[in-house]
């Protein structure tokens, strides 16, 4: 795919030093002469009826420069652009250009437009677009068991552990990583929260609130994300599963993690 340009895009995680991130760029599968015909994606998830939290982003829609994917509206649940970039890189590496093109072609035109421009790592993009991407990956490349979402989450954790959280990972332990899980969740969401409830010395229950009802695939992606973070922090035989989903009608979206 050739050498990618790099720029000094600075991020901080707590007191971490700035790190150099890859320069944002349009995805190569979306070049005008190879652009696949978009298909119709399933209906979007129902919007949350809960009132926005105090941490919600407010204000009018931010109009991005030409070629840059626009940020979310003030009241719309969002997810940091770094998640989208790492997911696309995983598709390229795991399934090649052909697989990535199939997935992007399965998105509805409005969602697919989010991926046509430059995605900025620190921008807030709609959570619904990430949900749609996970559904398209599972539909086009998965086997119906939702395992692709977990693989995407693990790949994102690998990427972020080497960049955004590099300094933390140098001295991380499983117990410290568990304590940081709510903080990690808030880094990637402009509102909402993750509540961690330790049920034993080597297990934890996570309740997610991203600002909208989370699907099983969304919870599965974050189960893979936190599973891989615990492994990189030194935990052994880590298991992570999405056991409940608000979009499915459960009271809470819940991830169960255990290790040794």
Describe this structure as you would to a colleague.
Strand 5 (193-200) and strand 6 (203-209) form a beta hairpin. Residues 1-25 and 31-66 have low confidence and may be disordered. 38% of the residues lie in helices and 14% in strands. It has 260 residues and is an alpha+beta fold. The N and C termini lie far apart (40 Å). Helix 1 (81-105) packs across helix 3, helix 3 (127-141) crosses helix 4 and helix 6 crosses helix 7. It is globular. It has 7 helices and 8 strands. Strands 5-6-8-7 form a 4-stranded antiparallel sheet, covered by helices on one side. Strands 1-2 form a two-stranded antiparallel ribbon. The relative contact order is 0.15. It has helices at 81-105, 109-114, 127-141, 147-161, 166-170, 174-188, 216-232, and strands spanning 6-7, 21-22, 78-80, 124-126, 193-200, 203-209, 239-244, 253-258.
List keywords for this structure.
260 residues; alpha+beta; four-stranded antiparallel sheet; two-stranded antiparallel sheet; 8 strands; 38% helix; globular; disordered N terminus
**Helical stretch tally:** 7
Protein structure class: alpha+beta
- Label the overall shape: globular
N/C terminus separation: 40 Å
Q: What is the typical, i.e. mean, pLDDT?
A: 79
Lateral strand order in the biggest sheet: 5-6-8-7
Fraction in beta strands: 5-15%
Number of strands: 8
Percent of residues in helices comes to 25-40%
SSE order: EEEHHEHHHHEEHEE
Q: Main beta sheet: strand number and arrangement?
A: 4 strands, antiparallel
Give start-end ranges of low-pLDDT stretches.
1-25, 31-66
């Amino acid at each position: 795919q050739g050498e990618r340009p790099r720029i000094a895009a600075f991020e901080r995680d707590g007191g971490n030093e700035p790190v150099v991130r890859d320069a944002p760029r349009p995805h190569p599968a979306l070049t005008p002469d190879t652009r696949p015909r978009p298909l119709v994606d399933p209906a979007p998830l129902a919007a949350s009826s809960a009132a926005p939290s105090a941490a919600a982003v407010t204000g009018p829609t931010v109009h991005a420069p030409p070629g840059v994917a626009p940020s979310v509206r003030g009241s719309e649940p969002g997810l940091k652009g770094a998640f989208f970039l790492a997911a696309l890189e995983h598709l390229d590496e795991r399934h090649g250009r052909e697989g990535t093109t199939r997935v992007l072609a399965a998105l509805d035109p409005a969602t697919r437009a989010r991926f046509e421009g430059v995605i900025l790592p620190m921008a807030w993009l709609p959570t619904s677009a990430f949900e749609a991407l996970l559904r398209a990956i599972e539909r086009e490349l998965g086997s119906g068991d939702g395992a692709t979402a977990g693989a995407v989450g693990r790949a994102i954790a690998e990427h972020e552990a080497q960049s955004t959280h590099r300094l933390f990972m140098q001295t991380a332990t499983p117990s410290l990583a568990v304590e940081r899980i709510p903080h990690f969740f808030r880094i990637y969401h402009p509102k909402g929260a993750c509540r961690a409830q330790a049920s034993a010395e080597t297990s934890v229950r996570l309740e997610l609130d991203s600002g909208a009802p989370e699907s099983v695939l969304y919870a599965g992606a974050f189960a893979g994300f936190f599973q891989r973070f615990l492994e990189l922090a030194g935990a052994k035989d880590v298991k992570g599963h999405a056991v409940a989903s608000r979009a499915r009608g459960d009271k809470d979206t819940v991830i169960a993690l255990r290790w040794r």
